[in-house]
C-alpha cells in the first residue's frame, strides 16, 4: 500500500516518480543561484555608480553613523562600533592633554585672571589640578558642617546610575552631520589615504607618517593627505614628547588650510587643532590669530566664538573676551559656556552680585565646558561675599564633582595622597631646625623689616588679588617661586643670609618668603591658596596685644611675637585686624614634608 501525502493524495513508489521529484528540486536550486548572481552583479554596478557619480549621500543614507569610529571611512572598526563590540570614541570640546592633566587651563591664585597652566609644553609635571574657591565662613565658634545640601540641578548631574547618559545637543548634532573631509580629488585616492590612516589608528605612527609624506609628495594638492601628515606628526610629537615635532605639526596644519579646494569641515578641523596645539606650546597669540581666522570663515559658529573668548582671557584681555561673550549671549542667550565665562569676567571686575546669575545659570545648563571647578569656585565666593549661605551647597557640589579635595580644601594644583590638615606643629613638619632658627633670630628679622617699612615704605606693595573687604595690606617679597629677589635682599641682608641654609623654604617653587604688614581695620575675605604642595609659616614680629586673629577651617588662633604658627593654606582661612596699631609678620612657605625630592624638582612653579 503506497503512502499518502499530507493532503491525502496517493504517492507512488515507482523509480520514475522519484526521478521526477529530484529533477524538479535541481531546477529550483539552479534558479535560486541564478537570481543570486543577478543581484550580485546589480550590486556591483550600483557601487560603481555611487563611487563615480556621487549617487548617494552617505551621511543621510546611514543616519550620521557611517563613520562610527571617526577615522574618515567605513571599515571593520566601524562595524564593531555599530554592533556594540567596542565603544564609540567620545569627542570632547576641550583640548587634549598629553600629560594626563585634569585641565589644561586654569585661573590665577585667586581668580582675577584666566591664566594658562604653569607648564604647557611636554614636561614631567606631576601635579593634578583641582580648582579652588574663596568664600566667607561661618563664625569660628560654629562647628564644621558635616552635611551640606546640594542644589537640585546639580544633584541630578552628580548621581551615577546605570541608565544611559543623555546626549548633549552638540553630540546629537555631531551624529546628524558627519564632517566631510574629502574633496572630489581625494575621493579618487581614498583607498591610499585609508591605508595610511589605518597605520596611524593602529599606533604605527612612524609608518603612517612615512606613508602620508609619500602621498603628499605624490599628490601635493591633496588637502586630506596633508591633514593626515599633520595628524601623524601630532601623534608622534606626543609619543616622543617633542616640542620640535609638534611645531612641524602646527606648520602642516597651516599648510592644509592654505591649499585650494579644501572642504569647509576640513578647514574647521585643521585650524581648531592648530589653535589648540599652539596654545599647548604657550604660543597664545598665535592661537588667538588662528581662532580669529576661524571666526571670520565661520561667523555663525557660536562654539568658535566661545573658544576665541577663552583665547582673549588667556592673554589677560578681559575686555575683548567680554565683548565676544556679549555677542554670543545676544545670539544664544542660553549658552552655558558663554554664561559661566561672562560671569567669571564680571566677578574679576568686582561686580559680585551681577556675576552670580550668569555663573549659576551657566552651571545649571550642564553644557560642555561648564563643569569646571573654577566656576564652582567663583560662584561660591560671590555668594559668600553677598551673605548667601547657599555658597556651601555649590562648594559641596564642586567637591562631589571631583573639583575640590573637600568643602574646606579647595586648592588648585594638588599632588594626591599628601597628608591634609589645617594646622601643623613644628614636629609634624620635620622642619624643627628652621622653626627654631626663626624664633631664635626674630628680633634681627623684625629690625630689618622695620627699617624697610619705616625708611622706604614704598617697598611694601599692596595686595592685588582682591582678597580684602576693607583696610590696607602690604607685602615685601624676598623669594618668589623658588627664586631669590636680589633687589629686596639688599635691604634685609641678614634675614636673607639666615634663610639661605634652608632649601625646604628657598627652593619651594610653589611658595614665597615675604614680610606682611596689615593696617588697622583690615578684613581679608576667606580664601584658599593655590596648592596642597606647601605649608605656610607665620613668624610674629609686631603683634598688638589684642584684635588680630586668623581662622583656618573652624579653628581661630592669634599670633605671638617671636613665635611661629604653621598652617596649610590650601584650606580656607580668613584674617581680621581690629587692633589699634599695625600688625607685622614674616611669612615662610616650605615644601609639604611628604613630597619626594623628585617631585620638588619637577613640579612646576606657582
TrEMBL record:
Residues 439-593 form the Aspartyl/asparaginy/proline hydroxylase domain. The keyword Membrane applies. It is found in: Endomembrane system; Membrane. It comes from the Eukaryota. Residues 1-23, 93-178 are annotated as: Disordered. Residues 143-158 have a biased composition (Polar residues). It is a single-pass membrane protein; Single-pass type II membrane protein. InterPro entries: Asp-B-hydro/Triadin_dom (IPR007943), Asp/Arg/Pro-Hydrxlase (IPR007803), ASPH (IPR039038), IPNS-like_sf (IPR027443), TPR-like_helical_dom_sf (IPR011990), TPR_rpt (IPR019734). The chain crosses the membrane at residues 32-53. GO terms for cellular component: endoplasmic reticulum; membrane. One of its GO terms (molecular function) is peptidyl-aspartic acid 3-dioxygenase activity. Keywords: Disulfide bond, Glycoprotein, Membrane, Phosphoprotein, Transmembrane, Transmembrane helix. Pfam families: Asp-B-Hydro_N (PF05279), Asp_Arg_Hydrox (PF05118), TPR_16 (PF13432). Residues 30-84 form the Aspartyl beta-hydroxylase/Triadin domain. The keyword Transmembrane helix applies. Belongs to the aspartyl/asparaginyl beta-hydroxylase family. This is Aspartate beta-hydroxylase. The gene is unm_hu7910.
